[in-house]
Each structure stands twice: as C-alpha cells, then as structure tokens.
Amino acid sequence: MGQVLDWFWEVLDVTRPRLSALEAWLEAQPRQILEGFALAYLDAADSLIDFSQGVHVDGAVWSEDSTEDLCMWVVGQGHRFWCSVVTGEWELAEAAQAYLGRPSPLSGEVTQWDQEVSAPEHRGYQSPAAIVYGVYRTRFAEDLHERLSDG
Fold it and tell me: CB neighbours of 38 closer than 8 A, spacing ≥ 6?
C-alpha cells in the first residue's frame, strides 16, 4: 500500500472533482512527472486485484477489462476510498455497486468527476485515469502507453 507516492494522492485529492484542474496541473509538469503520475495510477489500480480474476458482482464475474475500469475508478476516488478497498475495510464488490450508481455502503463516499477539459484535443481522455495520456500526447507528440511499455 505504501508503494503509491504521496504526491500522487495529493494531486488527485486537490483537483477532484474538476478534471480541468487535473488537466491544468498535468500540463504544467515535466515529462518525468507525467510518466510518474501514470505509473502511480496503474500501480494503485493493480494493487486492488489481478484484473484477470475479475470481481464478483451480483453472482457474475466481471471481465478483465471491466475489472480494470472499476479499479481505475476506485483510484480516481482518492486515497481514502482506495485505501479502504485495498485494506479490505470495503470489498471491491461494494465499490462496484457504487461504480454502477447503485445504493451501496460506499455511495456517500463517491465523488463524480466532471467531464470538462480545457483543450479540445483532450476530449476522449475525459477521466482522471486517461487525461494524463492526452496531455502527454499533446505536449510531447508521443504515446505514453508506448513510452511506459518501452521503459
């Protein structure tokens, strides 16, 4: 749990729920910080579950992609929410209910990010997990996914 850097959580907590605030913060950072942000996001999501195992919700096992989407959403809810799931205080299946907009013990803890971005070229990257990839592409004319997989 201590693997994810404190500054990462501070950025999410300070900018939430305004995606444009996160976008502006990322636009002002050097390449290494954007790469670190993306890696921290992935590490935090990976620490919740092996995506290939899927999460059990309503008697069904979610696909790997759906489980990854859920975990990315949990991270976007901030350090306190993520920490409660990663430590087992809250079950990932309970988080899934909140993710789906259903009543859940976690419903009061959920913050919906807005979808507004300042730069038109960042449309399509309108989530806290994805915006760093749009900003990186715009600023450095490189694909961050490729950059991270090469490194």
Answer: 132, 133, 136, 144, 148
**In this structure, which amino acid lies at residue 42?**
L
What are the tens digits of pLDDT across the range 105-140?
Answer: 777 788 889 999 999 999 999 999 999 999 999 999
Per the CB < 8 A criterion, the answer to whether 116 and 19 are in contact is yes
Give the Å distances, CA to CA, from 35 to 5, 42, 105, 108, 145: 13, 11, 34, 32, 10
Given 3-state DSSP classes, what are the helix, strand and coil percentages for the chain, each rounded to the nearest 5? Answer: 60, 5, 40
Q: 119: which DSSP letter? A: S
Distance CA 50, CA 47 (A): 8
In whole angstroms, how far apart are CA 145 and each of 28, 63, 134? 20, 21, 11
Q: Write down the pTM of the prediction.
A: 0.93
- Interhelix angle for 92-99 vs 79-86, to 10°? 140
